[in-house]
Amino acid sequence: MRQGGRHGWLLGLAAVLLLAGAGSGKAAVQELALGEINPLTGALAKHGLEIHQGIALAVEEVNARGGLAGRRVKLLSRDDQSRPEIALNQAQDLITRERVVGLVGGYVDTLVGPISEMAAKHQVPYVASASLQAALTRKRHNPYFFRISNLEGILSPVCRLVGEVLRPQQVALIYMATPGSLEFAEGVEERLTRQGIRIPVKEKFRPGAPDFSMALLKVRMTGCEVLISGGFYPDNLLLTRQLREQRLQLQALLAPWGAAYPSFIAELGELSEGVLGTCAWTPGVTWPGTEKDSQAFITAFEARFQQSPTTTAMHGYASARVLLTALERALARSPAPTGEQVVKELRTLDLTLPLGRVRFDAHGDPLDYHHVVVQIQGGRLVPVYPPERAQARVMVPLPAGRK
Fold this sequence. Notes:
Helix content: 40-55%
Number of domains: 2
Shape: globular
Largest sheet: 5 strands, parallel
Structural class: alpha/beta
CATH architecture of the largest domain: 3-Layer(aba) Sandwich
CATH topology of the largest domain: Rossmann fold
Strand content: 15-25%
Strand order of the largest sheet: 2-1-3-4-5
Radius of gyration: 24 Å
Distance between the termini: 98 Å
Order of helices and strands: HEHEHEHEHEHEHEHEHEHEHHHEEEE
């Protein structure tokens, strides 16, 4: 009897475990794991967090309307600590252990590149939020890699503004020793030289450079009228401060990465006046016809995070919207779509978001990514180029710093 009781107890335990396993399997089927990798700590944490917020909002919106094909999306966020080797390890963990259906996020190509390689190895679609380096798509065949941004969308308005509006004889170029910034500098030099504009100053600096005084001295000595910076947000804060301190007379300071942020204005106050930047989107600057959607995004973002969204947050939001849309369409065809099936949906995708129209070419690059040049006027970011999207004329020369 004791033996029969023990046998019955074991059978009961087996039944409980079987039911628990079936239940957890059902829960697993109901959820879709989406992986996100961003620099949430380290030197790039400011923009990495903004991208994360945009992604999180997009996922929360999908879940609020019932998920994808009735399945809740579980966002698994990972911090690459602004370090490429950690980005690679996080991608491997998300793909092999967590079994994510796709990857999203990423800021700067030194971090995006390793993630894209791991995604290709395991045939997992990856939509990068902020990536520019041409080599990632043009020199490597990676059918699983897509990105919201590209360098052409920044180079074109910058060089056209300089050539058509500012029309200087000489331009100084300061750029960072990173792949995207280097390609930006090469593109600016090639295009402006073709327009007959000389570039006597080309200064490369390492991330976190503590001092631009020698570079600014060269700008002064050569008489360059325009200074173009390929640095990021913290670099451009320091550069602008030192330029003002030296009371360097310039026609324009153009900083595509970093100036188009309200925090840039808040940090520098009057010193930011007249600085030019670029963005694909920012509150008050949206793709024509998307004003209603843009305001809805701003309202939802402010309610969720108690702060206004930035252009970087919109890049995170757009990249997540793109991947979630492709996943939803793939799920309509198969309850368990492969990475290849999701990629097929990404290749035929055509969405219009506040950031702009999103379609991809055969390399995974966006076909319609366009920046607007904005200038800080009266403490506000005002679109000044191209003409069809301008709300004011470019203010020149750059106001001199205070004594």
